[in-house]
Amino acid sequence: MLTNLFSQAGLANLLLSLPAVLWAITFHEYCHGLAAKMLGDPTAEREGRLSLNPLAHLDPVGALCLLLFRFGWARPVPIDTRYFKNPRRDIVIVSLAGAAGNLLTAFVCARLVNFFPALFRTWGAQQFILLMIMINLGLAAFNLVPIPPLDGSRILYVLLPPSCMKYYFWLERYGMAVILVLLIIGVFPYIMQPILQLLFRLLMI
C-alpha cells in the first residue's frame, strides 16, 4: 500500500481523490441535514451543519479511510427526533438521505461519461470521474452497514424488536471500536468490494 501510495501514479491518484472525498462526505451529511429540516428538525441548520463547507463535516479518521480504502464516514449530523411527526419513518428517511446523495452523485457522474465522452479522453479526467463514482459508492454502501455510528444502525434501531435492544445499546457503546477492528483485520474490503463492483456495473449500463 505505501509503495503504491508514494509512486508517481499513487500520488496522482491521491491528489485526484481529495476533491472527490471532500465532496462525498460534505454532500452526504448535507443531505442528512436537509432531509431532517424538511421533516421539521432545525438542529443541523442551527448548529451550522446544513452546509456545503467540508470543514463542517470532516471526520479525520473516516476521511482518511475513504481516501485510502474507498469507504469511510463523516462526522454525524445532529438530529433531534422530537421534532419528527412520525419518528420511526422519519429516522429511516433521514438515515437513507446521505447514501441517496452519494448514489445520486455517482449516477450523475456516470451519465456525464455516457453523454459527454469527449470530456474524459485524458487520463486525469478519466481517473477523476472514476474516483468520484467509486468514492461516492463506497461512502454510500459503507454507511449503510448496521453498526453505530453508521447510518445503517439508525435503521436497525427502528426495525429491532424491544427484546433485542440491549444488544443494540451494547453495539452502540463499542461500535466504533468494532468498525476499526474490522478495518484493521481486513474484513471490510472483502465485504465491500463485490457490492461496489455490482453498483458500478449497474451505474455504467
Describe the structure.
There is one protein chain. The chain is mainly α and 205 residues long. It has one domain (2-203). 71% of the residues lie in helices and 0% in strands. It contains 9 helices and no strands. Residues 1-6 have low confidence and may be disordered.
Major sheet summary line: none
Could you tell me how far the N terminus lies from the C terminus, measured between alpha carbons in angstroms?
31 Å
> How many β-strand runs?
0
| Helix percentage range | over 70%
Overall mean confidence score, pLDDT: 87
Please give a quick description of this structure:
This protein is mainly alpha-helical and 205 residues long.
Task: Outline the fold blueprint.
Elements: H1 2-5, H2 8-38, H3 43-46, H4 60-69, H5 87-115, H6 123-143, H7 151-159, H8 165-184, H9 187-203
Helix pairs in contact: 2-4, 2-5, 2-6, 5-6, 5-7, 6-9
Primary descriptors:
205 residues; mainly alpha
